[in-house]
Design brief:
Blueprint lengths: L1 E5 L3 H12 L3 E5 L2 H10 L4 E4 L2 E2 L2 E2 H11 L4 E4 L4 H10 L3 E2 L8 H9 L4
Helix pairs in contact: 2-3, 3-4
Length: 116
């Protein structure tokens, strides 16, 4: 599974990437700008998007992902409820906040199987 992960907290990435996202091909970007470049460069099976980024809000990239990859599974991964609901309003499918990230594998599996 190829995942675009838009997340700017490097300590969170270090702690959870191998533990909960091992075996998946991760493209990790910390900003809207880097996410846009990744979208131009490749295709993804899923995207994990944080809300508060250094150069803007994650709902901007969710809207762009919806336009470029209409069927892409998108997971809102903010640490706060308001951010997750903004991501959902922009087109994310499901919320898996940082405090529930130990369940991200199951969330991704369910999204991958949603059209089968």
């Amino acid at each position: 599974m190829r995942i675009l992960w838009v997340e700017n907290h490097s300590s969170f990435i270090r702690v959870v990437a191998g533990q909960f996202l091992g075996g998946r091909e991760l493209t990790i970007v910390p900003s809207l700008r880097a996410a846009r470049a990744a979208i131009e460069a490749g295709a993804f099976d899923a995207a994990l998007v944080d809300y508060d980024l250094d150069d803007g809000k994650g709902d901007e990239i969710v809207l762009e992902l919806r336009r470029v990859f209409p069927g892409l599974a998108i997971v809102a991964t903010s640490s706060h409820e308001e951010g997750n609901w903004a991501l959902m309003a922009a087109g994310a499918h499901v919320i898996c906040g940082k405090l529930e990230f130990d369940g991200i594998g199951k969330v991704l599996e369910e999204l991958a199987n949603r059209d089968r």
